[in-house]
Amino acid sequence: MINFNLLTLFPEMFPGMLGQSLAGKALARGDWSFNAINIRDFSTDNHKTVDDTPYGGGAGMVMRADIIEHALLSLKKPSRNIYLSPRGKVLNQALVKELSQEQDLTLLCGRYEGVDQRILDAHDFEEVSIGDYVLSGGEPAALILMDSCIRLLPNVMGNVDTADNESFGSATNGLLEYPHYTRPASWTDAKGNTHNVPDILQSGNHAKIKDWRREQSKKLTQAVRPDLLKKNV
Ligand code: 6GU
Q1: Are residues 136 and 170 in the same domain?
Q2: Domain containing 220 — which CATH number?
Q3: Cβ–ligand 1 contact at 84 (below 6 Å)
């Protein structure tokens, strides 16, 4: 059971994709919940403004600390605060696992050029990024963070084995996952090329299959993410 408080200018973006599939079923069961708060509801002027021009000049607008604080203080209980931002530490599976064990998480989603630094300082926001590229707002990043946490909740994934076997899971020792195959054993694509399932996977020799998969994981990781091998020897 985890609750996500979302501070956003676009509350209708939630639960979004998380209302579907496994996360959607878990939401319906009450395995997780969310509370999307519209920051604009805490604006005090007639025009419902939430932002202003940056001190020191420059492009764009900055979301005001005082208004965000009013939204934050409307929450019943204080919780771990996260600001989704490309300046943050990059989300990885270790942080996901840690966050998934919290009872409440408050996720601040910024728009425009960002938020006044003082709201982050005053309320101990941890800054988290989902990768080295820039989004137009924190909402899609919040959904991704939420998805990664929800799938680790007890009862959410059908097969308890699966979470650990995947890329970055403990069973693969932090390596990328080996390739998967299903029927038909021989498949000819639309271009006329025939692709066969590796013989070893059809051999029934589970020790050899395990070795083959480990080898594939290592090769794939070396080719695509050599940085992961350095950390996991
Ligand atoms: Cl968390 N927010 C935004 N706005 N852009 C991002 C990001 C987050 N992570 C990567 N790019």
Answers
A1: no
A2: 1.10.1270.20
A3: yes
Q: Residue 227 Cα, ligand 1 centroid: separation in angstroms?
A: 22
pLDDT tens-place string over residues 28-59: 999 999 999 999 999 999 999 999 999 999 99
Say yes or no: CB of residue 143 within 6 Å of ligand 1: no
CB 2 within 8 A of CB 32: yes
Mutating to test ligand 1, I would choose from 84, 89, 147 the residue with most ligand atoms within 8 A of its C-beta, which is 84
Question: Cis peptide leading into 154, omega within 30 of 0?
Answer: no
C-beta of residue 217 within 8 angstroms of C-beta of residue 211: no
pLDDT at 163: 62
Whether residue 20 is found in the same domain as residue 123: yes
Q: Tell me phi and psi for residue 193, to 5 degrees.
A: -90, 135
Residue 219 Cα, ligand 1 centroid: separation in angstroms? Answer: 30
pTM above 0.90, yes or no: yes
* Protein residue closest via CA to atom 5 of ligand 1: 135
